[in-house]
Amino acid sequence: xxxxxxxxxxxxxxxxxxxxxxxxxxxxxxxxxxxxxxxxxxxxxxxxxxxxxxxxxxxxxxxxxxxxxxxxxxxxxxxxxxxxxxxxxxxxxxxxxxxxxxxxxxxxxxxxxxxxxxxxxxxxxxxxxxxxxxxxxxxxxxxxxxxxxxxxxxxxxxxxxxxxxxxxxxxxxxxxxxxxxxxxxxxxxxxxxxxxxxxxxxxxxxxxxxxxxxxxxxxxxxxxxxxxxxxxxxxxxxxxxxxxxxxxxxxxxxxxxxxxxxxxxxxxxxxxxxxxx
Amino acid sequence: xxxxxxxxxxxxxxxxxxxxxxxxxxxxxxxxxxxxxxxxxxxxxxxxxxxxxxxxxxxxxxxxxxxxxxxxxxxxxxxxxxxxxxxxxxxxxxxxxxxxxxxxxxxxxxxxxxxxxxxxxxxxxxxxxxxxxxxxxxxxxxxxxxxxxxxxxxxxxxxxxxxxxxxxxxxxxxxxxxxxxxxxxxxxxxxxxxxxxxxxxxxxxxxxxxxxxxxxxxxxxxxxxxxxxxxxxxxxxxxxxxxxxxxxxxxxxxx
Lengths: 277, 255
Prior knowledge:
The complex is a heterodimer. By secondary structure, chain A is an alpha/beta fold. Chain A contains eight helices and ten strands. In chain A, helix 3 (112-121) crosses helix 4 and helix 7 crosses helix 8 (252-267). By secondary structure, chain B is mainly α. Chain B has one domain (33-250): Orthogonal Bundle (MetI-like fold).
């Protein structure tokens, strides 16, 4: 953890590690109308996430795990049930719970620095200098200080996701919601980011809900891995991954977990799910 | 530098050919004056102030009308993009009127406003407005939904969302609409000035018109030249830097 030395008080406050949220998802259901009829994306899903826990949701595409993430984010409303963050119901999006999407969703009209600054500008009670200092701090954290004036299209896929990570971390949210953020990246870049995200999670203490269809990725990152079954979307099984951190995606112990989870996934008939890429 | 040299040589050759055609007396000198005659008209018009006065009058009409077109068109475009009711009504009307060559507004403007500045302004506004409305609407509707979602989670809403997310995201479309609106406004203003004499001020179009009346071909060609130069300058000074910025930021190819 790099020290925020030389910053004045409000910046230090801003960079302080704050209490991460606990999430309570209670009996949440959600269905959509599609051409082929009603799709039960989520069917009475309940889930508790502890403070600073790293939870991975695994399942085939279309099993409702992204829908659950969007509901936690407040981007979608459940048909039934509710979501509590620190005991308060989630009714709309808010910067306490920031989302990282599969696409970096960076704004092309801003440069790298402008993108990281964007959520900070929406945060009250900070001077502009504070905002710039905080943005600089997070750019350094993801190792992109050198690229602060680069345009978005000039970055590689991995760098874009790093900027997106810095942008999501910048307003110091309590919860980080990640929707297959590494799915579009090459294996080498991904491995590097697994290391980074574990380090940042440890340093900044966030509650993380991470959606993926990559079993190995889930075993590498999660304290717990929850297996989703599709049609209707339900949590089928739960695996606690008890391995020391930082974890190496290529370790043998991790492979054993991944094999177990994959087996369970296959038994659900989800053969199309990616198996330990 | 090499580009500049190439262009200079190209135009020099063009002038030489013109001069040669003039000297060969293929056409009557009344129809084809020499480049020198055109240049000397330009010089005298510049010295006695005719040219500057006409340019100022024309530009004043153009810029005022264009500005009104932008200021009215942008919000209308946002309205049509935001609410289906406006899209089905105003949007359809804008689409229809945009296909109308803006010169076609001249007869109507004359009957409504008479031979006044208001008529000129009206024609320019009509030339600008519909392109801006349609480009803004298209631009806003092409903003990837993920931008809006990402901004929502970061706490952006309402006005902040419109001004800091949706409008900038739609900028490439809006700028191309502004450019088209400018081109339409410029063309329709010239047509209006050539058609209509307005006593409150002689614009470039009117100089062109009187050049024809007096069979002063040097004047006609000289004024055409000035009109071309103004068009080029508007592009180079105003639109080109904006487009360059957009291309650089968005990483779109610079055609």
